[in-house]
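Exercise: predict the fold of this chain.
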Amino acid sequence: MGLQERAFCRTAMIASFRAMVVGAFLAHATVLFVLPQMPSVFSSYSLELMKYGGHGARVAMNHPIIVVLYLIPFVAFFGLYFFKNWGRYLLASFLALVLIGSFFFGVSISGPPETFFGHAASLLDGGIMALAFLSPLRDQFAAPRSS
């Protein structure tokens, strides 16, 4: 592969990665901030069932520490977009905490819109983690940046 082809592939990978980061940011924001303000997108049955979300939790989902926990990925996405090394470790830490926390957060009940955006966020998070740690793009996080 020639120098121009490599440069094109690198540029395309960076653009794809940044698009994934923006998509994940939007998906997380939709689940956390938009959908709770739009009960009309849920059926009355879903709304009734969702009242029981978190039932049996060992940790209250509205505890300030949990609220802050769910804001972590937004900071991580900012760092990831600009290829800051701490961004990928912050997102990885968030994902690990949420996976472990799922044993303590009680029953999870969500309607179709929340499930859709939640799955989209999860898929994008996985793709971002794979590219940030396992692809040639990982070198972008170590390279010094000139402003």
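Check your answer against the key: Residues 16-142 form one domain.
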